[in-house]
Amino acid sequence: MANEELLTHAKQLYMDQRLEPTQIAEQIGRSEATVYRWISKYAWERERLADDLSFTKLGERLARHIHLIEQAATAENRSLSGMELRLINQIVALVEKLSNKTMRYAHGLEALSLLDRYLQTKDPDLCQKLKPHLANFAREFSSIDGEG
Question: Do residues 95 and 62 touch, judged by C-beta distance below 8 A?
């Protein structure tokens, strides 16, 4: 396996399968120190944490709960109660707010990623790429104070 393929495979094991660095090292035939170095160098830990905390995943979980409420009513051969309808309406409103914040969050993560890479390499091209992301991030998050 080529180095780029090996790195991609290791990241997939870390991100998608949630394997520990020791397990990844065993599977790909590299040292544990190498895997830890990749996790640090490419900020996989931050990416994995962001994935766990993403507004999109939270929205998906809320949507699944709406479905479960609807399924329960159907299984019991009844209409949704007033309380269930109010709960669903509250969840839908929350999901809409989360979808708006997801874009803000994405800009923040992109800016942070570029900033990390710039700090590691001091590449002036990255600094130029970073400027619009930071501007978007600042503009979008400055409007959060007005939201509930």
Answer: yes
